Amino acid sequence: MPQLLENREKLRHRSTEAVRFAVPLVFQDDEPVIWPRTLNLIQGQTGSHKSRVAALFATVMIAAGIPACDAVGLARHGEEGQSYTLCYVDTERNASDDFPFAIQQMRERAGYARNEHPACFDFITLEPIPRAERLKALGQYLEYVRGKYQNHLVIVLDVLTDCISSFNDEKESLLLVDMLNRFINSRDVTFLCVIHENPGGVKARGHLGTEAQNKASTVLQVAYMKQANGEATDVIEMRYLKRRNGSPGLSFHVAYDEATKGLIRADATAVAQATASRRAKATPNELAPALATELAFGPLASGELEKRLAARLGASARTIRERIAELAATAEKLPNMAGCECVLTKAKDGKETRYSLTPVGAD
Fold first, then answer.
1. Which domains occur in the chain, in start order?
2. Sequence-separated (6 or more) residues with CB below 8 Å from residue 214
3. 3-state helix vs strand vs coil in the chain, percent to 5
4. d(Cα 76, Cα 66) in Å, to the nearest integer?
5. Could you give the 3-state DSSP secondary structure of residue 237?
6. Cα 137 vs. chain centroid, distance in angstroms?
7. CA 216, CA 252: separation in Å to the nearest integer?
């Protein structure tokens, strides 16, 4: 009761003052995505490069300047007088080559020499610690770095579920999440946690995943874009499923670069092709000849064209409407029945919109 009453008095006093909201720590394409003193998740299926995504965020935080990171649009905010220490806690990579190489990459991409040890970068591995003892070890490490560094701490936990004996153990899951929340609320700490998804779904794994998703301010999903037949493309979609003070759905696309062993911004053409390939019906390869056939004898009203294409391709009128709107907006070149290059155009005829295949270069 004394603690509750003390907290009440603090809230009463704070509620009378002007409230200054925290400045976001990290932006994605100028949109705020990570805020200080929050819990944040990076989730995805096995093999989706979640750890490399976490490394991109880590690089932003430890960089000497205020960079854009690896050209994928991540950047740290530019408020003066702020400093951060990034503590990377790994649980599964080996200490002989995998984790040391990841540390090297983060340092070098942040502008440091390979043999340089910046004061703003700390790291450990829990891999040698038995699972039954990891929660205690993590708590001891958090206390250690909180006492060692005076500035704001950003803790990366890669992988969160490996910090306890079982991700389905309700008691341990709650103990871990409660511990993270205590550090967030009273110790000036931000957590960025990597976690696996359940196979075939978007839910983070186990009881721990459910608790973490509920408490998280930002949830970033990392997944390969798939074709209609289920096969993965080379494009990785990074979608913010949840974002504090921001609408969900913000997304961008990256690809794995073999030369640098890292992630780079995906080529716009590759993204367009991956997007088109996951459409099971009315794909570009199906739509182009269908348009040539239906518009062979001149313009058609939008409603009639949608009706005919829907019947021919076995798709809904809404799907057809979206497809032809995209083609008209992008002016993609399409062949007519004579094989001439055309673009899909639309024009008003009274209250009606009519579509045509207009030869390239024609008025």
1. 21-277 (3.40.50.300), 284-359 (1.10.10.10)
2. none
3. 35, 30, 35
4. 6
5. strand
6. 29
7. 20
Distance CA(78)–CA(23), nearest Å, equals 10
Helix (H, G, I), strand (E, B) or coil at 19: coil
In degrees and rounded to multiples of 5, residue 342 shows phi and psi of: -135, 170
- Tell me the whole-structure pTM to 2 decimals: 0.76
- Among 248, 222, 334, smallest CA distance to 284 is for 334
Of 116, 111, 117, 125, the residue nearest 59 (C-alpha): 111
Contacts of 47 (CB under 8 A, 6+ apart): none
The beta strands (E) that lie in the chain are given as 26-28, 31-34, 39-44, 68-69, 74-76, 84-90, 121-125, 152-158, 189-196, 218-226, 232-243, 251-257, 262-265, 300-301, 333-335, 341-349, 352-359
Backbone angles phi, psi at 156, to 5 degrees: -100, 125
Q: Token digits for 330?
A: 């992008």
Gyration radius from the chain CA atoms: 26
Quickly count: other Cβ atoms within 10 Å of residue 243's Cβ: 22
The reply to whether omega before 159 is within 30° of 0 (cis) is yes
Residues 6+ apart with CB under 8 A from 333: 341, 342, 343, 360
Q: What does each of the 363 residues of the chain score in pLDDT, given as a tens digit?
A: 888 888 888 888 778 877 677 789 999 988 999 999 999 999 999 889 999 999 999 999 998 776 656 568 898 876 666 788 999 999 999 999 999 999 999 999 888 988 899 999 999 999 999 999 999 999 999 999 999 999 999 999 999 999 999 998 899 999 999 999 999 999 999 999 999 998 766 788 888 999 999 999 999 999 998 877 678 899 999 999 999 877 777 899 999 999 888 899 999 888 888 887 776 677 777 888 899 989 988 899 999 999 999 888 888 888 888 888 888 887 788 888 888 899 999 998 888 899 999 998 776
Q: How many residues does the chain have?
A: 363
The torsion defined by the Cα of 63, 68, 69 and 74, in degrees rounded to 10, comes to: 110
